[in-house]
Amino acid sequence: MSVDVEQYQIRRQPWYRPVGNEIERFEAACAARMPVMLKGPTGCGKSRFVEYMAWKLGRPLITVACNEDMTAADLVGRFLLDINGTRWQDGPLTTAARIGAICYLDEVVEARQDTTVVIHPLTDHRRVMPLEKKGELVQADPGFQLVISYNPGYQSLMKDLKPSTRQRFGAMDFDFPAAAIETEVVAHEAGVAPEVATRLVAIATRSRNLKGHGLDEGISTRLLVYAGQLIAGGIAPREAAEMALVSPVSDDPDMRDTLMAAVDTCLA
Ligand code: ADP
């Protein structure tokens, strides 16, 4: 079974602005073959970080966006029917184990717990992936690295990682970067002037103070980049802020008014 490894290789250096010593810590975890859990709100730079690390370490990257309909077979693989009969197709986790890729399971708590347990044999000293239906035991390549992301903010009793899963990972906490760094990120990613980025970041900072006070999650760095891109594309800043910062985070008219007031203050 041959896999086109090239398709998973990150050829161009992703732009990543380090926030602390996360690069060194991730490298040390990889060297120790320690599975890594990235914890933090959505849109704060976790995926970009993983892409950057895959590029820096020269490893292929296989990303899986997890969801509740995902089954263990979606990760492991399954038999497919074709004109010649049945054919086994590896799932992304099995492919990653075979080729020594970084396997990034994004938003892993979205997957049902019976799905997540398939990562267990890969995350202990055995580093194996049993393909029970096929009768094969895949020994993970030394380069294989499992990374999961998880947003503790969305945590609920139903959707949490089992302790037996959790305790297999080293964890790295991510959060929205300090205002000066976030401004740099927004200016770079959206191609707007630092003065514009500073104002957008100020809106997000205010929204993040409303978390738990009617807002589930504050405005993310990703949304700030979107707002910046709209402004760079010629949309008036207030309109861009409404479209990219306010509307996406709340449907509640009162909360939207509060956020628009913050927009007007910060853009004035
Ligand atoms: P997450 O995976 O945490 O949901 P992403 O990694 O997709 O978030 O981040 C969203 C966007 O924010 C990225 O596409 C990138 O433009 C920007 N971003 C956030 N933090 C950084 C950072 N430290 N360096 C570079 N870009 C960043």
Order of helices and strands: HEHEHEEHEHEEEHEHHHHH
Shape: elongated
Mean pLDDT: 94
- Which ions, cofactors or small ligands are bound in this entry? adenosine-5'-diphosphate
The largest β sheet comes out as:
5 strands, parallel
- Read across the widest sheet, the strand sequence of neighbours is 2-5-8-1-9
Q: What fraction of residues sit in β-strands?
A: 15-25%
Q: What portion of residues is helical?
A: 25-40%
Distance between the termini: 61 Å
Query: From the helix content, strand content and strand pairing, which structural class follows?
Result: alpha/beta
Task: Describe this structure as you would to a colleague.
This protein is 40% helix and 16% strand. With 268 residues, it is of the alpha/beta class. The protein has a five-stranded parallel sheet with strand order 2-5-8-1-9, sandwiched between helices. Strands 3-4 form a two-stranded antiparallel sheet. Strands 6-7 form a two-stranded antiparallel sheet. A hairpin with a 2-residue loop joins β3 (77-82) and β4 (85-90). The longest helix is centred in the C-terminal third of the chain and has 15 residues, at 194-208. It is elongated, with a radius of gyration of 21 Å. The relative contact order is 0.13. It binds adenosine-5'-diphosphate (ADP). Adenosine-5'-diphosphate binds at residues 15-17, 19, 42-48, 177, 185, 189, 221-222, 225.
Features:
single chain; 268 residues; alpha/beta; five-stranded parallel beta sheet; 16% strand; elongated; binds adenosine-5'-diphosphate
